[in-house]
Amino acid sequence: MMTVSAAVAKVRSLLRNQAVLLLNAGMLGLGTLMTAILGFVYWWFAARSFSAEAVGLAAAAISLMNLLANLGEVGLGPFLMGEIGRRKRAGPFLTGALLASFSASIVVGLIYLVIAASTSTQLGSIVGSSATDLFFVAGCALTAVTLVLDQALVGLLRSGFQLARNVVFAASKLLLLIALGLTLGRATSELAIFATWFAGQLVSLVVVAGLLVYAGRRVFHRPEIRAFHPVLGQVFGHHTLSMAVQAPALLLPFVVTVMLSAEINAAFYAAWTVLNVALLVPASLASVLFAIALREPELFPSRLRLSLGLSMLVCAATALAFLFLSRFMLWIFNPAYAVIAGNGLQFLGVAAFGMALKYHYLAVQRVRRRLGFATLVLIGGAVLEIVAAAGGAQFGIAGTANFWVIAVSLEGLLLCPALYWATRRAATPSTTAPPAVAGVSTYGNSLDETDQIGIASRA
Description:
disordered C terminus
């Protein structure tokens, strides 16, 4: 039988071995916890102050903006998460990535507007006039910049700056929403809610720039673009893989709005917000797991087991909370939401298991450089999720939610064998090292060579 002293020694050894993972995941977790709490208050106040239609349309527009921003960042965020920590001069590299993502997201936003002009959706009140079109595109570009910046900070293991940016973003948009709600009341439109989101992102970037200057770091560098040329294949591989994971979650509020109604989406998005709070834990763990695996591949299996174990505990608590408290959660936002959705969302929490497995599968395949096969698998899963959610809409909100949960759960089960073998086999340098290309350093760099900046909470 293990003595108390032996157990304490074992715990200390575990904490020492996993210090990098736990510290940075802890910073991410703290940041996402703070933003989740403030985000909950944000949508609670919106639900209490604005009409269900305005909230539903704003939520769908914000989800669409995030989807277009993820398309526009063209994989630079995930790529930097794994690469930037090994570069001696990260500033110019990061500046080039921010400039590229800003430009690409503007193009993506304009393409969407051209497509939307020939169709008719319930989002026309936000992105359907010349006065708001440019505002929407600017929101896409600004969001893309924050996505790349946050993920670069994780790669540099400087999650403190990421923590600051996300807390400032969450707090400032909440304060702006409260100011609008108190001054304009229920006459405020969905565009006002969208505007607070945009302004919050802008304020957070200004604050982070000020913190960097205060810390004695340069904020503006001459952008380095040529360094990306030899690794464009890797960048787009990361991008395709990321979109396969994120697209269904970002599209779901849009699907609910179009297939059902903005009012129903208001209730759905309230539950969706709570689910994403729980998903921030496995998402943060998987992100840091990928960021540090390339530096210490021999510890990857043990860290993966720890990350999966912690994630499954959070998922179990989430599933139980939704099963017994879903209507109460909706009632907290707005009593009308509990009436709109009823018990239709009580199984939504079960999806946390499948989503957590997807996050970790994504990290495993990135570490092992198996992007092509993983992309095909996850694209198939993404199509299944969207088709299931749209097909379930004929049975109302319960059908949409439950069909999507079934699709995500099946997808997670199919990924389990790959995750099991990853927990048993070390990620050797031959499986984690990239091809030798100009402008990309080897994986031998130490933690001392990390340089600047942290990941947006959207898990």
